[in-house]
C-alpha cells in the first residue's frame, strides 16, 4: 500500500469512526453525511489499490456504510412523531410501505438513486 493509499484508507476510517460516534449520540443527520463520505473515500481507495483482499474488505465496508446511511435517511425523512433510535430490520416493510413499493427498483438502481440523493444538500451551508 502506498502512502497515498494508506492516507485515503486512514481518512475513511476516521470518517467512519466519527459517523459511529455521531450515530450513537443521536446526531443522525451528521452521521448520515459521515457514513456517505467514508463510503466515497473507500471507493476512491479501491480505485488505486491492487490488493484483492483489501478491495473485498473495502467493498464490504462500503456496503455496510451505505446500508446504515439508507436507514438513517429513511429515519430522517420519515414522520417526526417517533424520535427513537433507527434500526434496520431487513425484510420488514417500513411503516406505511407495502412489499410492492419495496420492489419498485432493482438493487443497482436503488443504490444509484441513494448515492445521488446523498449528494443533495439537506442543510443550508453555514457560510460567513
Automatic annotation (TrEMBL):
Pfam families: MIT. Transmembrane segments: none annotated. Gene3D superfamilies: Phosphotransferase system, lactose/cellobiose-type IIA subunit. Residues 6-83 form the MIT domain. InterPro entries: MIT_dom, MIT_dom_sf. Residues 76-111 are annotated as: Disordered. SMART domains: MIT. This is MIT domain-containing protein. It comes from marine sediment metagenome.
Amino acid at each position: 500500500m502506498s502512502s497515498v493509499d494508506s492516507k485515503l484508507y486512514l481518512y475513511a476510517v476516521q470518517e467512519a469512526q466519527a459517523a459511529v460516534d455521531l450515530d450513537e449520540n443521536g446526531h443522525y443527520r451528521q452521521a448520515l453525511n459521515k457514513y456517505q463520505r467514508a463510503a466515497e473515500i473507500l471507493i476512491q481507495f479501491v480505485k488505486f489499490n491492487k490488493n484483492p483482499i483489501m478491495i473485498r474488505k473495502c467493498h464490504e465496508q462500503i456496503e455496510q456504510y451505505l446500508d446504515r446511511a439508507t436507514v438513517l435517511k429513511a429515519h430522517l425523512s420519515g414522520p417526526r412523531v417517533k424520535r427513537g433510535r433507527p434500526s434496520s430490520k431487513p425484510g420488514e416493510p417500513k411503516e406505511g410501505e407495502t412489499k410492492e413499493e419495496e420492489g419498485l427498483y432493482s438493487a443497482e438502481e436503488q443504490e444509484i438513486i441513494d448515492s445521488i440523493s446523498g449528494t443533495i444538500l439537506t442543510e443550508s451551508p453555514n457560510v460567513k
